[in-house]
Amino acid sequence: MTESDHEEQYGVGEPDQFQRLWTPHRMAYIKGESKPTGAGAGDGCPFCEIPKMSDEDGLIVRRGNSAFAVLNLYPYNSGHLMVCPYRHVADYTELDDAETAEVARLTQDAITALRKASGAHGFNVGMNLGTVAGAGIAAHLHQHVVPRWGGDTNFMPVIGQTKVLPQLLRETRQIIADAWPHD
């Protein structure tokens, strides 16, 4: 640290040798900003609002007839996608046959695209059905596709409760969209 660093930090605690990795964008998630106010589709559900946006603004990687793939705004790893039906349903058993098939197909295509785009070594794929199961937005079904690499769990998330993501979400969205299998 330089003397000017100490001056800028004056009054905020004793200077030390630690570097700080500030992630202020995570505070929106922690505070629950933009979370739905209720369980209905008209209660501010982001998975109902995202399809109304452009692909770039909504971070949509692929649109299907009854479902879409979108980057997670608060990813566990770079390339963390979610596959969501357009219809506002909470439980997997509520999907009709066409929705079930398209969620499955988009999930397979997401894995193919992420392997091509990022060289992922493996994946965590799954749904958290209900708040008690860990669903952040329980009212609208979504399946997570999280790319994994050997050694991607390092000291940052374990000790610092921080994920280091090497790429901006818009750049990640474009790379994955470009790698998506063509119909």
From TrEMBL:
<dbReference type="InterPro" id="IPR011146">
    <property type="entry name" value="HIT-like"/>
</dbReference>
<feature type="short sequence motif" description="Histidine triad motif">
    <location>
        <begin position="140"/>
        <end position="144"/>
    </location>
</feature>
<dbReference type="InterPro" id="IPR039383">
    <property type="entry name" value="FHIT"/>
</dbReference>
<dbReference type="InterPro" id="IPR036265">
    <property type="entry name" value="HIT-like_sf"/>
</dbReference>
<feature type="domain" description="HIT">
    <location>
        <begin position="46"/>
        <end position="155"/>
    </location>
</feature>
<dbReference type="Pfam" id="PF01230">
    <property type="entry name" value="HIT"/>
</dbReference>
<dbReference type="InterPro" id="IPR052908">
    <property type="entry name" value="AP-4-A_phosphorylase"/>
</dbReference>
<protein>
    <submittedName>
        <fullName>HIT domain-containing protein</fullName>
    </submittedName>
</protein>
<keyword id="KW-0547">Nucleotide-binding</keyword>
